[in-house]
Fold this protein.
Amino acid sequence: MDMDIATVNALPFEDFVNLLGNVVEKCPIITAAVWSARPFLNFTALEAAINEFIDALPESGKEGILRCHPDLAGRDLQSGTLTRESREEQAGAGMDALNSADASRMTRLNEEYKERFGFPFVICARMSDKANILRQLSERCQNERALERARGIEEVRKICRLRLQALVLTDAPNKL
């Protein structure tokens, strides 16, 4: 889409939320909340507003954001119910083409992870591949809950940045 920041700033509330509402997976409330912070000086200011909203949440709110993410190579991918963004990201990392051994391992590790932490494993699939995702999932199952919550939110930020970059030009200054 590649809107400049002036176009983003001019969007009515409903359009802003409809266009940017999934930069954080299934969390349009975040975009709805940052709309009132307009005008944004640039892409970085928009991204910062989203990150500041997330940072201000209690730990339970951060876990809620993580819980909005689907399992990698999970039921939603198999049934076709992923968001468009997640479907493209998972396919790009090869999650839609796992052999049966990798698919079984992924399912087992996803279940182990959710059992341990109470939220799904989140990784920026667009910055990874199948082998790295499986390795990270296995390794991160050993982390402490607070560390893993923080790590998951770091990954959410990466996903958000890439999704914003697909929608908003990153280098055009605002003409206020």
User: Anything to note?
Assistant: The radius of gyration is 17 Å. Residues 145-165 form the longest helix (21 residues). The mean pLDDT is 95.
